[in-house]
Known about the structure:
The mean pLDDT is 86. Helices cover 37% and strands 28% of the residues. The protein is flat. Helix 1 (2-8) crosses helix 4 and helix 4 crosses helix 5. The longest helix has 15 residues, at 129-143. The chain has 145 residues and is an alpha+beta fold. The protein has helices spanning 2-8, 22-34, 68-75, 104-114, 129-143, and strands at 14-21, 51-56, 59-66, 79-87, 91-99. The chain contains five helices and five strands.
Amino acid sequence: MLTAVNALCAADGTVCIGTRNLLVEQAFENKQHSTSRNDSTRLSFLDFENVDMRFMAGKWMKIRYDTPESLAELLEAYFGEVKVTGRSNATLRAICRNPLRLSDLDYSKALDEEFNMPYPNDFRHGRHKQLVEILVKLTNERNTL
């Protein structure tokens, strides 16, 4: 997804990103474990990559949690300038500029996935190829400026 965001960002553009705050989630989990286990109706846990799977409104959700440092490290693979700007109880925020040059193959694969996501029963519309070609061409033009 971040490769697609990089591709869609103008050379002088700014990307604002928000994600879940790992430190707050860990504090919540520690609090829950220190109280009676019967008090919580929440069934969740973080795996070794700080990802939580939750079942909400009939769907499974995959939620990744970051620290300011891990978020900056992740984003620096896609943007030349990354600034983690703030945090709240639930989220971290970052501002990214100067999209880095990635390979045409990386752009094509990411944009192909983003613009041809599966619908129920794994249906895909398959009408995205021309759009992906145009976006890769425009991204290459941006990268040569």
